[in-house]
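User: Good morning. I'm curious how pyridoxal-5'-phosphate would be positioned relative to this chain. Could you predict the structure with it bound?
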Amino acid sequence: MSTSAELGKRRSAAVARGVSSILSSYVDHASGGTLTDVEGREWIDFASGIAVTSVGNSAPRVVEAVKRQVELFTHTCFMVTPYEGYVAVCEQLNALTPGSFDKRSALFNSGAEAVENAVKIARKATGRQAVVVFDHAYHGRTNLTMALTAKNMPYKDGFGPFAGEIYRAPMSYPFRDGGRSGEQAAAAAIDVIEKQVGGDNVAAVLIEPIQGEGGFVVPAPGFVPALAEWARANGAVFIADEIQTGFCRTGDWFASTHEGVEPDLVATAKGIAGGLPLAGVTGRAEIMEAVHPGGLGGTYGGNPIACAAGLAAIETMSELDLAAAARGIGSTMLPALRDLADRYPVIGDVRGRGAMVAIEIAKPGTFGPTVDAGSVPDPDAATTAALSKACHEAGLLTITCGTYGNVLRFLPPLVMPEDTLRKGLGILADAFAAVCG
Ligand SMILES: Cc1ncc(COP(=O)(O)O)c(C=O)c1O
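Assistant: Good morning! Here's the predicted structure, ligand included:
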């Protein structure tokens, strides 16, 4: 077997450098809580392939379902000859997403593709064009979703021109907006929408109920419900991008539920299928059915193997009650991280819900009760990178995020054993002692 160093050399000669990796070690196998590289080194997995392997890597039910399906047929294209798995995944999505109204779903391959299609559907259903998105949003890397995404580097730089009719409103970001209430933050966003776009022009308001790449930003309570209400009152489609938050990650099937929000459309991907590429758009039947036959689809969308994996992953989440497991992970992690925050003044904020938690690193003295109202925390991306590196060297796989690159985010598989989780938190504490002690 090749070593990681050998594979790295082959990679440099074969793989475009635009596709980068966090670790230089090459994975050999992975389980419900650890990854092992080709040299036998093990990492505790606080990343889950960016919120994908919630049921664990190579989860037994997913492996069985995939094997069964591969032997039956691998692909027909649902648009040519349909099969039950696609229908069954749509039934599950219709049943599990918030809202008891009549729904329809369509399946795709990636989160970006789901978001693109949600926008297509909203525009067709409303006959309007404008799409409202938020500061710090991340919705993908295709042309339309780059336009929807806020952060320039590395996602957008030099890749324009971008799609039009996209408008950005301010986000509720309690650590950075002076702790505005959800209602105040929503009023500021709605003011931008009404003054700069016009309510009658808005096809869709698109938001992550908890932002992912933008920094695990948990908006103040009331912010998301107020925007959903504004969309309803103005005939716009309210789209929740639950690609990172969905499928039990935040302690419920979907994060919208925590505030009782029933989005018109929900975009899903990532955790839905245990690592196989599957994504969906689910929503109110009258909105979904506005699109003419043939208007949605794609060669691989809802591939039978991905659907089999999706059904097995959903069954695993139900039977093991992984929403409860996510809440349990949150109740272990959040106090441990708050304890670190008491000891290390670089930790500006500890936030998150369920098994989607993060710490924001900032220069001490630039935040907290002693600073002037209106001053903004000074992000410390260098310390964040040093902490992440120290974790990697000690066997804990962490990833960073945030508009300012200063957020350490934690996304363990929901099946991670408690002792592995605590061991990972111990490595994180050691990293703080080494970097910030
Ligand atoms: C909230 C959100 N939307 C969309 C996407 C894009 O998904 P994909 O990478 O599958 O295209 C992501 C991926 O990180 C995401 O977190």
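The chain is about 35% helix and 15% strand. Residues 322-343 form the longest helix (22 residues).
Let me know if you'd like a different ligand tried.
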